[in-house]
Design goal:
By secondary structure, this protein is an alpha+beta fold. The protein is built from 6 helices and 7 strands. The strands form 3 sheets. The protein has a 3-stranded antiparallel β-sheet.
């Protein structure tokens, strides 16, 4: 999931005769917040048949507390009609969903689809739960390593740039030209440096009026 809760299919494994979803994007509304909260709390969510007949809980409210029964962790809990209709429109008859949770946040889902009703036995569901937990831990470890590596590279580039300014006395323009891959490393299309009221720019940047406004905003924050 992205920061705006929209999603993107990052990886896929399928039969050759099935439609591909790899790379597709979908809006946040496709998986509402209540459903996301359930996925955040459970590792595996099976739905053996999207055409099952629901049975109502009796009574609907707890007679002692007047509160509805919390079915979050129940394997037999039903699915919303919107969800089952969504799957039917895809031609899917069974689904098993694994949650990827990183530091308490729902990072993504692994959705397993079958084109006929299928009951996944408990031992296999237990293995899937372990897989989801291991994948979540591995993802967090990879992200931590990438963040640490990026911080180290940023620190080294900053120190090298400052050292050249102090020892060589280069002009700002020369430093911008000589800094190897600085824009690529920062993943930017342009750079702007303000020195004693004068702007030094490279690449695609706003006009000077907008740059001055941006500099004032940065100083205020």
């Amino acid at each position: 999931f992205r920061e705006d809760s929209s999603g993107q299919v990052l990886a896929e494994s399928k039969r050759d005769d099935l439609h591909a979803y790899l790379g597709l994007h979908y809006p946040a509304e496709d998986i509402p917040l209540p459903a996301r909260e359930i996925f955040r709390k459970i590792w595996v969510r099976p739905l053996p048949s999207v055409s099952y007949a629901q049975s109502e809980i009796v009574p609907l409210l707890n007679p002692l507390t007047s509160a509805p029964l919390d079915m979050t962790y129940a394997f037999l809990r039903g699915a919303s009609v919107m969800y089952t209709d969504y799957l039917k429109n895809m031609g899917v008859q069974m689904t098993l969903t694994l949650s990827i949770v990183v530091e308490g946040h729902l990072w993504g889902l692994i959705a397993c689809h079958h084109y006929a009703p299928k009951l996944v036995p408990w031992p296999l569901r237990a293995v899937c739960e372990l897989l989801a937990q291991v994948a979540s831990l591995q993802l967090r470890a990879v992200e931590n390593r990438e963040h640490a590596r990026y911080r180290e590279q940023m620190s080294a580039s900053t120190h090298a740039l400052v050292e050249r300014m102090l020892t060589e006395g280069n002009e700002i323009n020369e430093l911008l030209d000589e800094a190897p891959g600085l824009a690529a490393f920062l993943e930017v299309d342009g750079m702007a440096l303000l020195e004693q009221g004068k702007w030094h720019t490279r690449g695609t940047v706003p006009n000077e009026s907008m740059l001055h406004s941006l500099a004032e905003w940065v100083n205020q924050t």
